[in-house]
Amino acid sequence: MQVNLDEAAKSYPNNDLVPITFTEDEAKRLSQPHGDALVVELEIAKHKVMRNLIDGGSSTDILFTRAFFQLKLPDRTLKPVKSPIGGFSGNEVMPLGWITLRVVFGTAPCQASVSVNFLVVDSPSVYNTIIGRETLHALRAVASTYHMLLKFPTPNGIRVVDGAQTVSRETYELATTARFRQTEPTSTKRRNPGECLQVGTVDHVDYGVITGAIQLGSLDPRDDFYEQRGSPVEDLEEVQFNPDEPRKTFKIGRLLREPLWARLIGFLREHENDFAWTHHDIPGIDPTVMIHSLAVDPKARPIKQKRRSFNPERYAAINTEVEKLVEAGSI
């Protein structure tokens, strides 16, 4: 890791004495309250790159392959990596390699140029890069997600890099609601230095301001399973079993026509008591029908699991559900 804070440092001998502070006034420009991630714009390899996540919880700096391809970096520049990294869900992901790129934080005269060792990870992402602790520590940078600011000392004073709250919110919403496709760059022409990099494409999204930007998948192998989950092919209409008990309802597809619609509703209402509405309606299953057992070695020494801690609201919810099971005799 190399950091160049300019030769002007000699003319700013007391730079280390300048404190980095945040004030409430700096947060007034934001929509409050918020829980948004700190996403900034950076210059990487002489290209302006959008959607860079500042993540002090990441021990490594990540460059996602889509951004790597769009920067037209030759594969031969990748250096081999011998060990995997931990994904968001605890699984291990093997990077394609690592590469050193020059990253500029801020604008002149208050800016810092850093040589960052990026791990190149083959995963679709709403972010182009993730800037982790190593780079933040090299810059002596302090990030505040509350203020949506990144501050670091330079020879010309404290530099402030603003986070983009709107982009951060749109990115998060895309990551949780939209499906993204990962496509190879269609052009082999190398980008001109300084050209703004927004990579990837987005399907079924109404936010025109972000169409064309790289968007996020996770490093969770369960994503492939979730992609295959079925969904209704038609709108559903909620119907009550009994007007005197509005909580007892069922849903029927609106494409079903008469007389089948009326016949199905009548059939379900006729068998209302066959449905379980409370824990008391589930007395249990006869062991002769089905039983669950654990294949545990009886000679193995039992180990008590460490008790998990929850917030008061979750404790209350857990106690309420357990009391229902105890009252019904299920446990």
What pattern of helices and strands is seen along the backbone? EEEEHEEEEEHEEEHEEEHEEHH
Query: How many beta-strand segments?
Result: 17
- Rg over CA atoms: 28 Å
- Helices and strands: which structural class? alpha+beta
Distance between the termini: 58 Å
How many helical stretches? Answer: 6
Low-pLDDT segments:
5-14, 178-191, 198-227
Biggest sheet character? 6 strands, mixed, barrel
Residue share in β-strands: 25-35%
**Multimeric state:** single chain
What does the overall shape look like? elongated
Average pLDDT reading: 75
Determine the fraction of residues in helical runs and give it as a percent range.
Answer: 10-25%
Strand order of the largest sheet: 2-3-9-4-8-7
List keywords for this structure.
331 residues, alpha+beta, 6-stranded mixed β-barrel, 3-stranded antiparallel beta sheet, 18% helix, 27% strand, elongated
Q: Would you mind describing this structure in some detail?
A:
- There is one protein chain.
- With 331 residues, the chain is α+β, with helices and mostly antiparallel strands.
- It has six helices and 17 strands.
- The strands form five sheets. It has a six-stranded mixed β-barrel. Strands 10-11-12 form a three-stranded antiparallel beta sheet, with no helix packed on it.
- A hairpin with a 2-residue loop joins strand 2 (39-44) and strand 3.
- The protein starts with a strand and ends with a helix.
